[in-house]
Write a structure and sequence with these properties.
Length: 115
């Protein structure tokens, strides 16, 4: 499974960005797609994920009410709509897929939120 993330950039606090992650290759039986982030000096953490079959979602407490994860099964793409961004959201955002218990990671896209 190959993952191509896009949509990062620089935005002012309170602004919005939408990240996209397109999956290709052996996408059959991908169970979940999700977004993680890693800020400088911090561990990588879950932002949100979504199940492919049932569309159940899971969010980090810090982004609930501000971020929305969604998917387009026909395009094998997962999105992360990020609203009301805060400087603390600054990080490299990574897309992850899980298939048969194996994790696949995208290359990361940088999100910078200025005060």
């Amino acid at each position: 499974v190959q993952l191509q993330a896009s949509g990062g950039g620089m935005v002012q606090a309170g602004g919005s960005l939408r990240l996209s992650c397109a999956a290709s290759g052996s996408v059959f039986s991908v169970n979940t797609l999700g977004w993680y982030r890693q800020a400088p000096g911090k561990l990588r953490e879950l932002v949100a994920d979504i199940s492919i079959g049932g569309s159940s979602t899971n969010y980090a407490d810090s982004v609930k009410g501000r971020f929305t994860i969604s998917k387009d099964n026909a395009k094998n793409t997962v999105y992360l709509q990020m609203n009301n961004l805060e400087p603390e959201d600054t990080a490299v955002y990574y897309c992850k897929a899980r298939r048969f218990g194996v994790e696949y990671w995208g290359q990361g896209t940088l999100v910078t939120v200025q005060r």
